Amino acid sequence: MTSSSDEKLERARGLGADFGVNYRRNENWCEAVLEFTKGRGVDLVVETSGPGTLPQSMKATRIGGHIVLVGVLTGIAGQVPTVALMGRQQTLHGITVGSRAHQLETIQALNTMDLRPLIDVTYPLAKIVEAFQFQESGRHFGKICIEH
């Protein structure tokens, strides 16, 4: 996994992550991923930043691997190195949050597998502004919840 925080990387290792790289301290973090995977690359990248990091995510993904684009923190438009994507036979799949029905299906699946999301903090609805400020700070590790 990647993070701008060594503390978050350590917490992720405690939860089972095999490897982590701080992208603020390691500008070419894809090289660290390739080194860890002995040049192979990872099977799956969950890309949360978008066009600003997509080229490195593609380099860090194995030939025939998958990249799921779930966020656009670095902008809503940008260059996609299509020749690299084709040459590495990678799949780029963009997803959005989904419908209420999708959420209910996800909850049912999580309950079946006895999985629970990692919740960092919960705010009452009256403190929603503080919740958004906390999210904007980037200090959270896991979900930020609002009680209604």
Walk me through this protein's architecture.
The chain has helices spanning 6-14, 29-36, 54-60, 82-87, 100-113, 128-137, and strands at residues 2-3, 21-22, 42-47, 61-69, 91-94, 119-124, 143-147. The protein is of the alpha/beta class. The chain has a domain at 2-96: NAD(P)-binding Rossmann-like Domain (Rossmann fold), CATH 3.40.50.720. The strands form three sheets. The chain has a three-stranded parallel sheet with strand order 3-4-5. It has a two-stranded parallel ribbon with strand order 1-2. A two-stranded parallel sheet has the order 6-7. Helix 3 links the parallel strand 3 (42-47) and strand 4. The model has no long low-confidence stretch (mean pLDDT 94).
Layout: helices, strands, pairs:
Blueprint: E1 2-3, H1 6-14, E2 21-22, H2 29-36, E3 42-47, H3 54-60, E4 61-69, H4 82-87, E5 91-94, H5 100-113, E6 119-124, H6 128-137, E7 143-147
Parallel strand pairs: 1-2, 3-4, 4-5, 6-7
Helix pairs in contact: 2-3
CATH class of one domain: Alpha Beta
Based on secondary structure, the structural category is alpha/beta
Oligomer: single chain
Strand order of the largest sheet: 3-4-5
Q: Percent of residues in helical segments?
A: 25-40%
CATH topology of one domain: Rossmann fold
Ends distance: 32 Å
- Please state roughly what percent of the residues sit in beta strands, choosing from under 5%, 5-15%, 15-25%, 25-35%, 35-45% or over 45%: 15-25%
As a whole number of angstroms, the C-alpha radius of gyration is: 17 Å
Please tell me the CATH architecture of one domain by its name: 3-Layer(aba) Sandwich
Q: What is the number of strand segments?
A: 7
Q: How many strands, what sense, and barrel or not for the largest sheet?
A: 3 strands, parallel
The total of helices stands at 6
Uncertain regions: pLDDT < 50 for 5+ in a row?
none
The overall pLDDT average reads 94
Characterize the overall form.
globular
CATH homologous superfamily identity of one domain? NAD(P)-binding Rossmann-like Domain
Order of helices and strands: EHEHEHEHEHEHE
